[in-house]
Design a protein that fits this description.
- The protein is an alpha/beta fold and about 400 residues long.
- It is built from twelve helices and 17 strands.
- Helix 2 packs antiparallel against helix 9, helix 10 runs parallel beside helix 12 and helix 11 crosses helix 12.
- Bound molecules: pyridoxal-5'-phosphate.
């Protein structure tokens, strides 16, 4: 037997965390790491945040799970808070981002079905998109590395170039249901939608009776300094998938929609055994308490500006390695002139700094949203020390 008990689908590195505190992780071997990866934009409040851990502990001791066959005071309360603070009129809770995307796809198809247009089933999606790993979600990207060997995939997707409005509009036909797009692509390399692109998609949806479905699983929930990234564009979606930061580490996601867009989602059309159970709702409430506190999102924006400044000031000193900074708030990317994965591994193994690599040789910098100036200084210090001694492999 050579296969590992943990299915070997991840190329796992040598860091083996057993404890976390704020912006730091501690390994099995006692090593301390500055965690500017945050479980890939999940640990919005860092590790072991007292408000979140207490809410989960208290709820676990009170009522962990009941079926969605029963009334849910917990779910109703969190859904109401989301409705009060967003474009949405209704919310379906899931356990992950991919499931939130699945619900968004189903809601979009069902809308046109309810309108008597079942042939309008195709969502136009974009290159280097990432929507998760379910069959539906991998069908919604044209990235071969996620799709190969899993065919036949789900029909009903067409692929356009990201930030190419004309190209996207040219794909609209009688089968089009709408667009599915990340306002800021995370896995794709912190690629930000241009205002003309996202606003143009919104306008096309309004003109053609299509749905704008935003995937804010990574860029939403305070990461950009706004509650949701689309607020930066002055538009709202019809449907939106959310996850990652929404539970701060507790597995939680959500699909938000307007009343009109959700008109097909009547009793019996969708479900989830765990989705929105009392324990998940307690985690979601605790996160929202902090994120919606006065000044919290401003703090994210300010820290984002400081971190960006620090990165930009550092680049000229290491311009053999670093190219440019991209992104918004605390969803930042540092573009490298060589393989980003190799540098992420170097910073991790030699300087105890945790980052995430992404497409286009970009390093994703996704710290907890609660960091302060000291964490930023420490990150910049580690990055420049690493850059000073790092030698890219010859073939990078
Ligand atoms: C992470 C991510 C997903 C998938 O979330 P999972 O919880 O891993 O299923 C979907 N969309 C985007 C934009 C993501 O970043």
């Amino acid at each position: 037997m050579t296969i590992t008990p943990l299915m070997p689908v991840y190329p796992r590195c040598g860091v083996r965390p057993v404890r976390g505190e704020g912006a730091y992780l501690f390994g099995e071997d006692g090593q301390q790491y500055l965690d500017f990866a945050s479980g890939i934009a999940v640990n919005a409040l860092g590790h072991a945040h007292p408000h979140l851990t207490k809410a989960i502990a208290d709820q676990a001791a009170t009522l962990m799970h009941v079926s969605n066959l029963y009334g849910s005071p917990q779910g109703e309360h969190l859904a109401q808070r989301l409705v009060d603070n967003t474009f949405a009129d209704t919310v379906f809770f899931t356990n992950s981002g991919a499931e939130a995307v699945e619900c968004a796809i189903k809601t979009a198809r069902r809308y046109h079905f309810a309108n008597g247009n079942p042939e309008r089933h195709t969502l136009i999606t974009f290159d280097t998109a990432f929507h998760g790993r379910t069959l539906g979600a991998i069908s919604a990207t044209n990235q071969a590395k996620m799709r190969d060997g899993f065919e036949p995939l789900l029909p009903g997707f067409a692929y356009a170039k990201f930030n190419d409005l004309e190209g996207a509009l040219a794909l609209i036909d009688d089968h089009t249901a709408g667009f599915l797009v990340e306002p800021i692509q995370g896995e794709g390399g912190i690629r930000q939608a241009s205002p003309e692109f996202l606003q143009g998609l919104r306008k096309a949806c309004d003109e053609h009776g299509l749905l704008l479905v935003l995937d804010e699983v990574q860029c939403g929930y305070g990461r950009t300094g706004k509650f949701f990234a689309h607020e930066l564009y002055g538009i709202t979606p019809d449907i939106m998938s959310v996850a990652k930061g929404i539970g701060g580490g507790f597995p939680l996601g959500a699909c938000l929609a307007t009343e009109e867009a959700a008109k097909g989602m009547v009793a019996g059309t969708h479900g989830s055994t765990y989705g929105g159970n009392p324990l998940a709702m307690a985690a979601g409430e605790a996160i929202l308490d902090v994120i919606l506190e006065d000044g919290f999102l401003d703090h994210v924006a300010t820290m984002g500006d400081r971190l960006r400044q620090g990165l930009e000031q550092m680049i000229p000193n290491h311009d053999h390695l670093f190219d440019s900074v991209r992104g918004t708030g605390l969803m930042l990317g540092l573009k490298l002139k060589s393989d980003s994965r190799a540098f992420v591994a170097f910073a991790r193994d030699h300087h105890n700094l945790l980052l995430v690599s992404a497409g286009e040789n970009v390093i994703r910098i996704l710290p907890p949203l609660v960091i302060d100036e000291n964490h930023i200084a420490e990150c910049i210090d580690k990055l420049s020390t690493a850059a000073r001694v790092y030698v890219p492999a010859a073939d990078d």
